[in-house]
Amino acid sequence: MADFPAPLLPDPAEWSCPAPVRDRSVVLLGHGGGGALSAELMADIFAPAYGNEILDRLTDSATVDLGGARLAFSTDSHVVRPLFFPGGCIGDLAVNGTVNDLAMSGAQPAFLSCAFILEEGTELAVVERIAGAVGAAARAAGVSVVTGDTKVVDAGHGDGVFITSSGIGLVPRGVDIRPQRARPGDVVIVSGPVGLHGVAVLSVREGLEFGVEIASDTAPLGGLVAAMLAVTPELHVLRDPTRGGVATALHEIATASGTGVVIREDAVPVPEPVANACGFLGLDPLYVANEGRLLAFAPPEHTDALLDAMRAHPQGTGAVVIGECVAEHPGMVVARTGLGGTRVVDPPVGEQLPRIC
Protein backbone atom coordinates (compact mmCIF):
# COMPACT_ATOMS: atom_id res chain seq x y z
CA MET A 1 0.00 0.00 0.00
CA ALA A 2 1.35 3.40 -0.92
CA ASP A 3 2.37 5.74 1.85
CA PHE A 4 0.55 9.06 1.87
CA PRO A 5 1.72 12.10 3.81
CA ALA A 6 -0.22 12.92 6.92
CA PRO A 7 -2.76 15.68 6.29
CA LEU A 8 -1.84 19.15 7.47
CA LEU A 9 -4.19 20.09 10.27
CA PRO A 10 -4.98 23.72 11.10
CA ASP A 11 -3.42 25.14 14.21
CA PRO A 12 -6.18 25.58 16.82
CA ALA A 13 -4.45 28.78 17.93
CA GLU A 14 -5.41 30.29 14.58
CA TRP A 15 -9.07 29.34 14.75
CA SER A 16 -11.65 32.12 14.95
CA CYS A 17 -15.23 31.50 15.96
CA PRO A 18 -18.18 33.39 17.47
CA ALA A 19 -17.42 31.84 20.89
CA PRO A 20 -13.64 32.33 21.22
CA VAL A 21 -11.46 30.08 23.34
CA ARG A 22 -11.29 31.74 26.76
CA ASP A 23 -8.04 30.41 28.20
CA ARG A 24 -5.74 32.75 26.26
CA SER A 25 -3.35 35.37 27.55
CA VAL A 26 -4.08 37.95 24.84
CA VAL A 27 -6.93 40.31 24.02
CA LEU A 28 -9.61 38.88 21.73
CA LEU A 29 -12.25 40.74 19.73
CA GLY A 30 -14.77 39.16 22.07
CA HIS A 31 -13.37 41.18 24.98
CA GLY A 32 -15.04 44.21 23.41
CA GLY A 33 -18.39 42.56 22.81
CA GLY A 34 -20.16 43.33 26.08
CA GLY A 35 -20.59 39.64 26.97
CA ALA A 36 -18.88 37.24 29.37
CA LEU A 37 -15.38 38.06 28.11
CA SER A 38 -15.98 41.77 28.67
CA ALA A 39 -17.25 41.05 32.17
CA GLU A 40 -14.15 38.98 32.92
CA LEU A 41 -11.90 41.78 31.65
CA MET A 42 -13.59 44.20 34.01
CA ALA A 43 -13.65 41.81 36.98
CA ASP A 44 -10.10 40.50 36.59
CA ILE A 45 -8.16 43.58 35.44
CA PHE A 46 -9.90 46.95 35.59
CA ALA A 47 -11.99 46.67 38.76
CA PRO A 48 -9.03 45.52 40.90
CA ALA A 49 -6.86 48.27 39.44
CA TYR A 50 -9.37 51.09 39.93
CA GLY A 51 -11.48 49.59 42.75
CA ASN A 52 -13.93 52.00 44.35
CA GLU A 53 -17.55 51.83 45.41
CA ILE A 54 -18.79 53.99 42.54
CA LEU A 55 -17.17 51.85 39.85
CA ASP A 56 -18.34 48.68 41.59
CA ARG A 57 -21.95 49.55 40.73
CA LEU A 58 -21.15 48.87 37.05
CA THR A 59 -23.85 51.17 35.71
CA ASP A 60 -23.87 52.73 32.22
CA SER A 61 -22.85 56.03 33.80
CA ALA A 62 -21.47 56.79 37.24
CA THR A 63 -23.60 58.91 39.56
CA VAL A 64 -21.62 61.14 41.91
CA ASP A 65 -22.36 63.89 44.42
CA LEU A 66 -20.48 67.10 43.70
CA GLY A 67 -21.07 70.46 45.33
CA GLY A 68 -24.57 69.53 46.42
CA ALA A 69 -25.58 68.32 42.96
CA ARG A 70 -26.15 64.74 41.83
CA LEU A 71 -24.26 64.26 38.56
CA ALA A 72 -24.06 61.43 36.04
CA PHE A 73 -20.72 60.97 34.28
CA SER A 74 -20.03 58.59 31.38
CA THR A 75 -17.43 57.90 28.70
CA ASP A 76 -17.46 55.66 25.64
CA SER A 77 -15.21 54.84 22.67
CA HIS A 78 -16.59 54.21 19.19
CA VAL A 79 -14.83 52.04 16.62
CA VAL A 80 -17.66 51.17 14.23
CA ARG A 81 -16.82 49.84 10.79
CA PRO A 82 -17.85 51.14 8.28
CA LEU A 83 -17.84 54.77 9.36
CA PHE A 84 -21.13 55.47 7.53
CA PHE A 85 -24.15 53.17 7.52
CA PRO A 86 -27.90 53.44 6.81
CA GLY A 87 -29.43 55.71 9.42
CA GLY A 88 -26.23 57.28 10.75
CA CYS A 89 -22.45 57.31 11.12
CA ILE A 90 -19.79 57.10 13.78
CA GLY A 91 -20.34 60.79 14.58
CA ASP A 92 -23.98 60.71 15.68
CA LEU A 93 -23.36 57.27 17.20
CA ALA A 94 -20.72 58.80 19.51
CA VAL A 95 -23.11 61.53 20.67
CA ASN A 96 -26.15 59.32 21.09
CA GLY A 97 -24.21 56.56 22.81
CA THR A 98 -22.94 58.90 25.52
CA VAL A 99 -26.18 60.84 25.87
CA ASN A 100 -28.08 57.60 26.28
CA ASP A 101 -25.70 56.26 28.91
CA LEU A 102 -26.38 59.40 30.94
CA ALA A 103 -30.11 59.09 30.40
CA MET A 104 -30.07 55.51 31.70
CA SER A 105 -29.23 56.98 35.12
CA GLY A 106 -32.21 59.32 34.81
CA ALA A 107 -29.90 62.28 34.15
CA GLN A 108 -30.63 65.26 31.95
CA PRO A 109 -27.59 65.26 29.59
CA ALA A 110 -25.86 68.63 29.42
CA PHE A 111 -22.24 68.66 28.18
CA LEU A 112 -20.01 66.40 26.10
CA SER A 113 -16.35 66.08 25.23
CA CYS A 114 -15.31 64.53 21.95
CA ALA A 115 -11.84 63.20 21.07
CA PHE A 116 -10.92 62.09 17.54
CA ILE A 117 -8.16 59.59 16.73
CA LEU A 118 -7.46 59.96 13.00
CA GLU A 119 -5.48 57.62 10.79
CA GLU A 120 -2.90 59.27 8.55
CA GLY A 121 -4.26 59.39 5.00
CA THR A 122 -7.93 59.73 5.93
CA GLU A 123 -9.64 62.25 3.65
CA LEU A 124 -10.38 65.53 5.38
CA ALA A 125 -13.78 65.54 3.71
CA VAL A 126 -14.61 62.38 5.68
CA VAL A 127 -13.49 64.01 8.94
CA GLU A 128 -15.53 67.11 8.14
CA ARG A 129 -18.63 65.05 7.42
CA ILE A 130 -18.29 63.14 10.70
CA ALA A 131 -17.65 66.30 12.71
CA GLY A 132 -20.77 67.79 11.15
CA ALA A 133 -22.76 64.75 12.24
CA VAL A 134 -21.42 65.15 15.79
CA GLY A 135 -22.58 68.76 15.89
CA ALA A 136 -26.01 68.01 14.44
CA ALA A 137 -26.57 65.08 16.82
CA ALA A 138 -25.52 67.19 19.81
CA ARG A 139 -27.99 69.91 18.87
CA ALA A 140 -30.75 67.34 18.40
CA ALA A 141 -30.00 65.89 21.83
CA GLY A 142 -29.94 69.32 23.49
CA VAL A 143 -26.30 69.09 24.59
CA SER A 144 -23.13 71.04 23.81
CA VAL A 145 -19.70 69.68 22.87
CA VAL A 146 -17.55 71.89 25.07
CA THR A 147 -14.10 70.28 24.91
CA GLY A 148 -12.16 67.68 22.96
CA ASP A 149 -8.88 66.44 21.56
CA THR A 150 -7.35 65.19 18.31
CA LYS A 151 -4.57 62.68 17.73
CA VAL A 152 -3.19 61.20 14.49
CA VAL A 153 -1.74 57.68 14.19
CA ASP A 154 0.43 56.27 11.40
CA ALA A 155 -1.24 54.88 8.29
CA GLY A 156 -2.14 51.25 8.89
CA HIS A 157 -2.40 51.69 12.66
CA GLY A 158 -6.00 52.86 12.82
CA ASP A 159 -9.24 52.46 10.92
CA GLY A 160 -9.88 55.94 9.57
CA VAL A 161 -11.57 57.53 12.56
CA PHE A 162 -12.06 56.46 16.19
CA ILE A 163 -14.03 58.69 18.58
CA THR A 164 -14.09 58.81 22.37
CA SER A 165 -16.91 60.86 23.87
CA SER A 166 -17.64 61.68 27.50
CA GLY A 167 -20.58 63.46 29.05
CA ILE A 168 -22.08 64.84 32.23
CA GLY A 169 -25.68 65.40 33.20
CA LEU A 170 -27.81 66.35 36.20
CA VAL A 171 -29.82 63.69 38.03
CA PRO A 172 -33.14 65.07 39.33
CA ARG A 173 -33.88 64.84 43.04
CA GLY A 174 -35.66 61.67 44.08
CA VAL A 175 -34.44 59.64 41.09
CA ASP A 176 -32.49 56.46 41.86
CA ILE A 177 -32.12 54.29 38.76
CA ARG A 178 -29.64 51.40 38.83
CA PRO A 179 -29.69 47.68 38.03
CA GLN A 180 -29.59 46.66 41.70
CA ARG A 181 -33.11 48.10 42.15
CA ALA A 182 -34.91 45.55 39.97
CA ARG A 183 -37.36 43.58 42.11
CA PRO A 184 -39.84 40.72 41.62
CA GLY A 185 -43.08 41.98 40.14
CA ASP A 186 -41.47 44.70 37.99
CA VAL A 187 -42.64 44.76 34.40
CA VAL A 188 -40.00 44.79 31.66
CA ILE A 189 -40.66 47.29 28.86
CA VAL A 190 -38.76 47.80 25.62
CA SER A 191 -39.18 51.14 23.85
CA GLY A 192 -39.40 49.80 20.29
CA PRO A 193 -38.25 47.32 17.64
CA VAL A 194 -34.89 45.68 18.30
CA GLY A 195 -31.94 44.55 16.19
CA LEU A 196 -31.96 47.35 13.64
CA HIS A 197 -28.55 48.89 14.34
CA GLY A 198 -26.52 45.70 14.26
CA VAL A 199 -28.12 44.44 11.05
CA ALA A 200 -27.83 47.87 9.38
CA VAL A 201 -24.09 48.03 10.05
CA LEU A 202 -23.51 44.42 9.02
CA SER A 203 -25.42 44.83 5.77
CA VAL A 204 -23.16 47.58 4.44
CA ARG A 205 -19.99 46.08 5.90
CA GLU A 206 -20.48 42.79 4.11
CA GLY A 207 -22.37 44.12 1.07
CA LEU A 208 -25.51 42.13 1.92
CA GLU A 209 -28.94 42.93 0.52
CA PHE A 210 -32.13 41.81 2.22
CA GLY A 211 -34.69 43.20 -0.22
CA VAL A 212 -35.28 46.33 1.87
CA GLU A 213 -32.89 48.83 3.45
CA ILE A 214 -32.52 48.33 7.18
CA ALA A 215 -31.56 51.59 8.92
CA SER A 216 -29.93 52.00 12.32
CA ASP A 217 -32.15 53.12 15.20
CA THR A 218 -29.45 55.46 16.58
CA ALA A 219 -31.18 58.29 18.44
CA PRO A 220 -30.96 60.27 21.70
CA LEU A 221 -33.17 58.94 24.51
CA GLY A 222 -32.95 61.78 27.03
CA GLY A 223 -36.34 63.21 26.05
CA LEU A 224 -38.02 59.81 26.28
CA VAL A 225 -36.59 59.22 29.75
CA ALA A 226 -37.77 62.67 30.87
CA ALA A 227 -41.29 61.81 29.69
CA MET A 228 -41.16 58.55 31.66
CA LEU A 229 -39.91 60.28 34.81
CA ALA A 230 -42.78 62.76 34.50
CA VAL A 231 -45.12 59.79 34.99
CA THR A 232 -43.22 58.49 38.02
CA PRO A 233 -39.74 58.96 39.48
CA GLU A 234 -40.01 55.37 40.72
CA LEU A 235 -38.40 53.80 37.68
CA HIS A 236 -36.18 51.06 39.04
CA VAL A 237 -33.88 50.28 36.11
CA LEU A 238 -33.15 51.74 32.68
CA ARG A 239 -30.65 50.21 30.27
CA ASP A 240 -29.89 50.79 26.59
CA PRO A 241 -29.25 47.36 25.02
CA THR A 242 -26.24 48.21 22.86
CA ARG A 243 -23.38 45.68 22.60
CA GLY A 244 -24.78 42.22 23.21
CA GLY A 245 -28.34 43.38 22.66
CA VAL A 246 -31.42 42.81 24.81
CA ALA A 247 -30.23 39.45 26.13
CA THR A 248 -26.97 40.79 27.55
CA ALA A 249 -28.63 43.83 29.13
CA LEU A 250 -31.22 41.63 30.84
CA HIS A 251 -28.49 39.34 32.16
CA GLU A 252 -26.56 42.24 33.63
CA ILE A 253 -29.69 43.46 35.42
CA ALA A 254 -30.63 39.99 36.68
CA THR A 255 -27.11 39.41 37.99
CA ALA A 256 -26.82 42.82 39.67
CA SER A 257 -30.22 42.58 41.36
CA GLY A 258 -30.17 38.86 42.25
CA THR A 259 -33.54 38.35 40.60
CA GLY A 260 -34.78 36.33 37.64
CA VAL A 261 -36.24 37.66 34.40
CA VAL A 262 -38.90 36.02 32.25
CA ILE A 263 -39.62 37.37 28.78
CA ARG A 264 -42.23 36.32 26.23
CA GLU A 265 -40.36 35.58 23.04
CA ASP A 266 -43.28 36.50 20.80
CA ALA A 267 -43.72 39.84 22.61
CA VAL A 268 -40.23 41.10 21.71
CA PRO A 269 -40.72 43.44 18.72
CA VAL A 270 -38.38 42.18 16.01
CA PRO A 271 -39.03 43.81 12.60
CA GLU A 272 -39.60 41.29 9.82
CA PRO A 273 -36.51 42.40 7.81
CA VAL A 274 -34.35 41.97 10.93
CA ALA A 275 -35.87 38.55 11.64
CA ASN A 276 -35.27 37.47 8.05
CA ALA A 277 -31.69 38.76 8.05
CA CYS A 278 -30.92 37.07 11.37
CA GLY A 279 -32.44 33.82 10.13
CA PHE A 280 -30.29 33.97 7.00
CA LEU A 281 -27.12 34.74 8.98
CA GLY A 282 -27.78 32.41 11.89
CA LEU A 283 -28.06 35.24 14.43
CA ASP A 284 -30.42 35.66 17.39
CA PRO A 285 -32.07 39.13 17.34
CA LEU A 286 -31.96 39.21 21.15
CA TYR A 287 -28.15 39.54 20.97
CA VAL A 288 -27.97 42.12 18.16
CA ALA A 289 -26.91 45.68 19.08
CA ASN A 290 -29.33 48.61 19.35
CA GLU A 291 -28.47 52.31 19.61
CA GLY A 292 -31.84 54.00 20.09
CA ARG A 293 -33.78 51.65 22.36
CA LEU A 294 -34.12 51.26 26.10
CA LEU A 295 -35.26 48.61 28.54
CA ALA A 296 -37.19 49.72 31.63
CA PHE A 297 -37.98 47.84 34.84
CA ALA A 298 -40.87 49.56 36.63
CA PRO A 299 -43.55 48.81 39.26
CA PRO A 300 -46.56 47.18 37.57
CA GLU A 301 -49.02 49.82 38.79
CA HIS A 302 -47.38 52.38 36.49
CA THR A 303 -47.43 50.20 33.36
CA ASP A 304 -50.33 51.78 31.48
CA ALA A 305 -49.31 55.37 32.20
CA LEU A 306 -45.70 54.68 31.23
CA LEU A 307 -46.69 53.04 27.97
CA ASP A 308 -48.98 55.95 27.11
CA ALA A 309 -46.20 58.47 27.78
CA MET A 310 -43.62 56.47 25.85
CA ARG A 311 -45.86 55.93 22.84
CA ALA A 312 -46.55 59.66 22.71
CA HIS A 313 -42.82 60.33 22.27
CA PRO A 314 -41.10 59.88 18.88
CA GLN A 315 -38.51 57.47 20.33
CA GLY A 316 -41.07 55.32 22.13
CA THR A 317 -43.91 54.78 19.67
CA GLY A 318 -43.30 51.02 19.63
CA ALA A 319 -43.08 50.56 23.41
CA VAL A 320 -44.40 47.21 24.68
CA VAL A 321 -44.17 45.00 27.76
CA ILE A 322 -41.99 41.97 27.02
CA GLY A 323 -41.76 40.29 30.41
CA GLU A 324 -41.40 40.57 34.16
CA CYS A 325 -38.92 40.30 37.01
CA VAL A 326 -39.39 37.24 39.24
CA ALA A 327 -38.00 35.78 42.46
CA GLU A 328 -37.34 32.40 40.87
CA HIS A 329 -34.06 31.44 39.18
CA PRO A 330 -32.07 34.49 40.42
CA GLY A 331 -29.51 35.81 37.98
CA MET A 332 -31.07 33.90 35.09
CA VAL A 333 -33.06 35.05 32.05
CA VAL A 334 -35.56 32.67 30.45
CA ALA A 335 -37.80 33.10 27.42
CA ARG A 336 -41.24 31.58 27.00
CA THR A 337 -41.57 30.42 23.43
CA GLY A 338 -44.60 30.66 21.18
CA LEU A 339 -45.05 26.90 21.51
CA GLY A 340 -45.48 27.12 25.27
CA GLY A 341 -42.00 25.94 26.25
CA THR A 342 -39.18 27.84 27.89
CA ARG A 343 -35.53 28.28 27.04
CA VAL A 344 -32.63 29.73 28.95
CA VAL A 345 -31.23 32.89 27.37
CA ASP A 346 -27.53 32.50 28.08
CA PRO A 347 -25.16 35.46 28.20
CA PRO A 348 -22.87 35.60 25.16
CA VAL A 349 -19.21 34.73 25.57
CA GLY A 350 -17.95 37.21 22.98
CA GLU A 351 -19.97 39.03 20.36
CA GLN A 352 -21.89 38.05 17.26
CA LEU A 353 -20.98 41.19 15.33
CA PRO A 354 -17.64 42.89 16.11
CA ARG A 355 -16.92 46.60 15.56
CA ILE A 356 -20.60 47.50 15.72
CA CYS A 357 -20.48 50.62 17.92
UniProtKB/TrEMBL annotation:
The UniProt entry, under SUPFAM superfamilies, shows: PurM C-terminal domain-like, PurM N-terminal domain-like
Annotated PurM-like C-terminal domain residues:
183-329
Give TM regions.
none
Q: Tell me which InterPro entries the record gives.
A: HypE, PurM-like_C_dom, PurM-like_C_sf, PurM-like_N, PurM-like_N_sf
Q: Which Pfam families match?
A: AIRS, AIRS_C
- What are the residue boundaries of the PurM-like N-terminal domain, all occurrences included? 60-171
The similarity comment for this entry is: Belongs to the HypE family.
Against PANTHER family, the record matches this protein to: CARBAMOYL DEHYDRATASE HYPE, HYDROGENASE ISOENZYMES FORMATION PROTEIN HYPE
Tell me the protein's name. Answer: Hydrogenase expression/formation protein HypE
Q: Which organism is it from?
A: Streptomyces orinoci
UniProt gene name: hypE
